[in-house]
Amino acid sequence: MLTAVGDKEQVRRAALSHVTAYLLKPIANQALLEKIAQVLQLKPENIIDKKEFPLVINVSELSISQMLLEIKGCPGKKSTDAIYDRFMLTLGGRSTFSNLRINLDKAFFYETKALQILDDLVAKIIKHTNIQASSLFVDSEFFNDNVVDLQPFTYLSDVNIISK
């Protein structure tokens, strides 16, 4: 139950509805998280604040034909364009690169749409560069620890997933 201080009618309705706990406005983020965790029966260590894992994108050349795209942190739902733009800025119109390795840390997958973001990124790279799906390698501990069905993802299902 969410109510404002002094909102007598709301408090009365809450009492009649047998609500056992409610938050007062203004809402403290920590209090809200505690209530959500309590209702969902989550342990504090299972609650992740994505803001603690900002997106960091690094692009480097490994050889004359291979590039490395390192993505650390948790992407936003619309991060595909930012990652792609950073990659293309480094690529700089050079067409000699035909292989790409993408390294992702576990925090990337804290975003619920991470696989879709990755699929969209791979699609853009394949469509706009000389890099083919068979020459694209994705490496992340996430794939070591989780069984993932990539069939729903048109482009991601064609790349090489590295799991150690």
From TrEMBL:
Superkingdom classification of source: Bacteria
Residues annotated as signal peptide: none
Domain Response regulatory: residue ranges: 1-40
Cited InterPro entries: CheY-like_superfamily, Sig_transdc_resp-reg_receiver
GO biological process: phosphorelay signal transduction system
Organism of this sequence: Leptospira vanthielii serovar Holland str. Waz Holland = ATCC 700522
Source taxonomy: Bacteria, Pseudomonadati, Spirochaetota, Spirochaetia, Leptospirales
Name recorded for this polypeptide: Response regulatory domain-containing protein
